[in-house]
Specification:
Helix 1 packs antiparallel against helix 2. By secondary structure, the protein is an all-alpha fold. The radius of gyration is 16 Å and the shape is elongated. The relative contact order is 0.18.
């Protein structure tokens, strides 16, 4: 369960950074990136809740995908640009989000392996459901 809590915190940090940028740094005014930041914030919260309340492999998979896709979008934005946005590896929000997304990328598969989802030996809950 500790890895799920760490994963939930990582998703919440990334979600919080994206919500902060959307709300306070006027990312909400950007055509494609603005709505994507808001969806990222909402998605991060949903994934964090799912990690804590649903003992299944799907939230772990979502955590991994969330980390990969969010970090990939930032890397693309910082290198060639993404929908007219050219970011830089500068500032606390950038590094906080990047580190939390790297944690999400690591925790998702590690937790899945430790819980037995990668080997087919998943631990059963009280009701016998995975």
């Amino acid at each position: 369960m500790a890895l799920r809590v760490i994963g939930a915190l990582a998703a919440l940090v990334s979600a919080g950074v994206h919500l902060y940028l959307w709300w306070f740094e006027d990312y909400s005014d950007l055509n494609v990136v603005g709505p994507a930041f808001l969806l990222n914030a909402i998605g991060g919260v949903v994934i964090a809740v799912l990690l804590l309340v649903w003992r299944h492999w799907i939230p772990l998979f979502l955590l991994f995908g969330f980390g990969v896709l969010t970090l990939a979008a930032f890397i693309i934005s910082a290198t060639v640009g993404l929908f007219g946005v050219h970011e830089q590896w500068v500032g606390f929000p950038v590094w906080a989000a990047a580190i939390s997304e790297i944690v999400a990328i690591i925790v998702g598969p590690v937790a899945a392996a430790r819980e037995g989802y990668l080997t087919g030996r998943a631990r059963r809950g009280v009701a016998g459901r995975v």
